Amino acid sequence: MSHALAPLPRRAAALAPVLPLVAVLALLALPPAGHGAGPADVASGLVVGYCVIRLLREGRRPLSPAAALVLGLPVVGVALAALGASSPETGLAGMGRYLQIFVLVPAAVLSLLRGRSDFRVLAWSFVGLALCEGAVGVHQYVTRTGASYQGEDIRAVGTFGAQDVMGMASVVSLGLVCAAGIALGRAPVWQRATATGCALALVAPLAVSFSRGAWIATALTCTLQLALTGLRRTLTVAAALAAAGVVLVGGFGVGTAQLQERIDSIAQVTDAPDQSVVDRYALWSSAAGMWRDHPLTGVGLKNFPEYRDGHATLALSSGSDVEGAGAEYHRQALLSPHNMYLLVLSEQGLIGLLALAGSWLALLVCGVRGLLRVRRRGPGLDCALVACGLLVWVLTDFLYGDIGGPSTLVTALALGLAAWWALADGARRDVLPHGGVRDRVEGAVAR
């Protein structure tokens, strides 16, 4: 009997470790139900608990020493900054969020994934969630039921709502990066063709998200993914995309005045910045001022809002307008610098930034080394491109955003995939537990 025709229960049993992670992604598509932990956050806590129980039952070591060191580095700065929080409750809440996003969920992903087949299932789940959110976002743009942008309810925000305007952009961008990595790898032709189609389909919702940071991070990441596959393919794809752009924009007039203005504004961030850019510069300056006053340990977790006005310039506005996508008009306070590196530097100081950035740098170096090993002939090139692409996207996007909102869990899962490729050397092989069941599932998924 063909491997692809393996009994469904056996295939489900082989994929059981990755299914809780897929469930967390699926729950992110549910509309937010108000403040506090959402369904996906609760599910991520259950996944961490499930991972601990599974490891105890199997008697396995949870992480290698290297993985424990790399993923555990952020704990140092977070713990010190929690001591400087305005109250013990605030410190514990902030510490829990940081550990959830940068330590516990990535460690759970690293522990639960058993091979490249599991990795690909989770990567395709990213693509699936991006397609669902993207479809909702395009519908919002076409029917003018999205978040408010320049007086019109046209900004695509998916199911995340106007409170988290970056949520859909992040999900769609990460899904596009996953699709691009699969398309550029050595998967079967039908998989590469499907991934290419998904990547192209996700361009439209990314465009109407009007998120300049997501555009820049996605363009940079996909360019790097393409460059790593060889010069000839890079030039071919670049020529094809340029030709398609000329036809769509010049021949059919695809695009809107708002979209063109948003694209042009990227080059005007220093000459004639809009109010959102002015606010961002003011918040960055405020964060830098906090760090200068508290260089080693920062002002304490979740204390940025309390110290913001004491360091901000008069150019900072009172907040941003939030309206549309089911939300009534209100002003949303600017409670973070919208730059992850400056947020960590201001609240956790130099110690916190070195610990967190050191962890990310170690993941990047180990991930790229693994990619270079498989680039020519080794198996798993698609996994390498996806993992390194996700990490590059997150680190680039952190220049324009920080953690906050339900969509942050997507970042945690993306870091988990990057950590698996960078740190689980033995798991890159498709292991054969229980009589080779996983190898048969790999055949069904990869072929």
What does this structure look like?
This protein has 447 residues and is mainly alpha-helical. The protein contains 18 helices and four strands. The chain has a two-stranded antiparallel ribbon. Strands 3-4 form a two-stranded antiparallel sheet. Strand 3 and strand 4 form a beta hairpin. Helix 6 packs parallel to helix 18. It is globular, with a radius of gyration of 22 Å. The N terminus and C terminus are likely disordered.
Q: What general outline do the C-alpha atoms trace?
A: globular
Helical content stands at 55-70%
Query: Could you describe the largest sheet, including whether it forms a barrel?
Result: 2 strands, antiparallel
Class from helix and strand fractions: mainly alpha
Taking the alpha carbons of the first and last residues, their distance comes to: 15 Å
Strand content: under 5%
Multimerization status: single chain
Radius of gyration: 22 Å
Tally of helical runs? 18
Order of helices and strands: HHHHHHEEHHHHHHHHEEHHHH
Average residue-wise pLDDT: 84
